[in-house]
Amino acid sequence: KGEKMKYRKLGKTSLDVSEIGLGTEYLNRQSRETVVSVIHKVIENEVNYFDLVFNFPEYLDNFAAAFKGQRDKVILTHHLGSAEKNGKYRKTRDPKECEEFFMKTLSRLGTDYIDIANLHFVKNEKEYNETISKGVLDLALRLKQEGKARFIGMSTHDVSVATKAAKSGKIDVIMI
Fold it and tell me: Tens of pLDDT along 98-147?
């Protein structure tokens, strides 16, 4: 054991997140034992931020097993717009479909809220406008109002999208 983990406020949230977080894409299709072992070791080392990008049933069930009894120690991000069909990842901007996947995620994880409902991979300004106009942001705002999401995030690789999201005043945290 070296230094203690340091924590910082995340974006405009009140969340204290570890300076090191865990993206979980690489744990997709790993055994439950592997996922549980990795998550428990990471939590033991004071990491508390976990980005859950997929909505595959087995993936979520493995994380449910890993987080069992530990929900109060973790900050979870769920991606609104990450979907699956026949075991394959796909992106969607359909608010109804996003909500269905979100509710299944809550159920599979055995939690009644997600810390950050993240508008999933907004590629460019056209997709930003589509995400807004099709109602995915409205869905996120409603989930926040209902207490099913504590904060709203957005992931992008485009600086102009990040700037627009920040200036909107509706996005609490941006992953770029």
Answer: 999 999 999 999 999 999 999 999 999 999 999 999 999 999 999 999 99
Which residues neighbour 148 within 8 Å (Cβ) at sequence distance 6 or greater? 102, 106, 112, 113, 114, 117
Residues in the chain: 176
Exposure string of 106-120, with b = 16+ CB inside 10 Å and e = fewer, is bebbebebbbbbbbb
Distance spanning both ends of the chain, measured CA to CA: 30
Neighbours of 79 (CB within 10 A): 26
How far is CA 49 from its chain centroid? 10
Helices 95-109 and 136-145, packing angle to 10 deg: 40
If you write DSSP's letter for every residue of 54-103 in order, what string do you get? ---HHHHHHHHHHHTTTGGG-EEEEEETEEEETTEEEE---HHHHHHHHH
Position 88, amino acid: K
